[in-house]
Design a protein that fits this description.
The chain is of the alpha/beta class. Helices cover 45% and strands 14% of the residues. Helix 3 packs across helix 4. It is globular.
Length: 397
């Protein structure tokens, strides 16, 4: 799947997107997806909780929005969330249902159970996000529920292999996510100075200080605690360096007292932070393929990532040596950050290559076109959902 232009459906295709979470990278990816599909003539319906920016952004992108009340994690309300999802599907009569995120995959597959052609995009396996009995239960569920998805769509080959090794038997597809260059335009030196001035006015950041930015919710998965453990070494090697943690959540212990670290909190607009940064970092413990590095690269910023999930796959060729470090290794993380902060020329080369790579190999239009082709492949496939149900779905308005 390589075309960068969405295919025009032979008849108007109705797709129901069931989405949880409603903020962060998944929400931005869904909004970009429905925008491209609307332009291609697809009727997109986005069912999501009325929290976070997704409902607003999906409507602005041309989707019809539906209220689906669902929490971010499994809870005693799960049966009602599943029933509600099934009711929405009956009313919408979609040709295909696309489930985004582990929670939507849980409630959606439980409620629909193969009654509609279904694509499940986990964006990170539920059993990796849990521990102990909860992880075992999540794994058992993923193994069983795979039969209720015509395709399990992974955003990286490594995510697919992780599911396969865990015993998930599925009809697989792998399509990387995409980033919209209009949302994250390339930031030249003038844009950088303007972004620095604006952030300095609000947060007191020195305009000329070397700046590392981490955009992610504050949680164990994203590894901000590892970044804070690495930061004293970076600060010692690069005097005056600053680290900005941008995202909602509970900061790691001691974060507020670490010299040179700014807790910027949540923002709906991360583009100014990418523009202001010299370097963007994401030290995750696990991922499928995070959106923040793609957004940073589209802006023209080099990224330092831990070698988890699709991190290696999202980087431009030749960047791994400078930009990829082992997970859970603060010393290696400090070395990569300090080395690039001290090498403006190398950063400039990596930045130009990153920007070109994000806009070609990882563009939103390309990702949307490939997903649309996947939908059409699912609807033409003789396997999975019974043919009688497929004919009914295809005849829906």
């Amino acid at each position: 799947m390589t075309s960068s232009t969405p295919a025009t459906p032979s008849r108007r295709l109705t797709v129901l997107h069931l989405v949880q979470p409603t903020s962060g990278g998944v929400a931005r990816a869904v909004a970009d997806l429905v925008r491209a599909h609307t332009e291609a003539g697809v009727r997109s319906l986005v069912a999501c909780p009325p929290t976070g920016p997704l409902e607003r952004e999906a409507a602005a992108a041309g989707a019809e929005t539906l209220c689906w009340l669902a929490g971010p994690a499994p809870s005693p309300d799960l049966p009602w969330e599943a029933v509600f999802a099934a009711r929405l599907a009956r009313r919408a009569r979609p040709a295909l249902v696309h489930l985004h995120g582990a929670k939507a995959g849980l409630a959606g597959r439980l409620g629909l159970r193969g009654r509609y052609p279904t694509v499940f995009e986990p964006r990170g396996w539920s059993f990796d996000a849990a521990e102990g009995p909860a992880a075992r239960l999540a794994l058992a569920w993923e193994r069983r529920a795979a039969r209720w998805a015509d395709r399990v769509l992974c955003v990286s080959e490594r995510e697919r292999r992780r599911g396969e090794r865990a015993g998930v038997t599925a009809r697989w597809a792998v399509i990387p996510p995409g980033v919209d260059p209009a949302r994250y335009p390339a930031a030249d030196s003038v844009t950088r100075r303007q972004a620095r001035a604006a952030l300095a006015a609000v947060h007191g950041l020195p305009q000329r200080a070397p700046l590392v930015v981490c955009v992610a919710r504050l949680c164990r998965q994203k590894g901000q605690d590892l970044l804070l453990a690495a930061w004293p070494e970076v600060a010692a090697r690069v005097p005056g360096a600053r680290l900005a943690l941008v995202g909602a959540g509970t900061p790691p212990p001691g974060a507020a007292r670490t010299p040179g670290v700014l807790l910027a909190g949540h923002t709906d607009d991360t583009a100014p932070w990418y523009a202001a940064a010299d370097l963007v970092v994401l030290p995750s413990r696990w991922e499928a393929m995070a959106m923040a590095p793609l957004e940073a690269m589209a802006t023209g910023r080099p990224v330092v990532l831990t070698d988890v999930g699709g991190a290696r796959e999202c980087l431009p060729p030749g960047h791994a040596a400078d930009c990829l470090v082992p997970p859970g290794d603060p010393a290696a993380l400090a070395g990569a950050l300090a080395g690039l902060l001290a090498s403006p020329a190398r950063r400039g080369v990596l930045a130009r290559q990153a920007r070109e790579h994000a806009r070609t190999a990882l563009g939103a239009a390309r990702a949307a076109a490939d997903r649309l082709r996947l939908y059409e492949d699912v609807l033409r496939s003789p396997g999975g959902v019974p043919r009688t149900r497929r004919r009914r779905a295809l005849s829906a308005p």
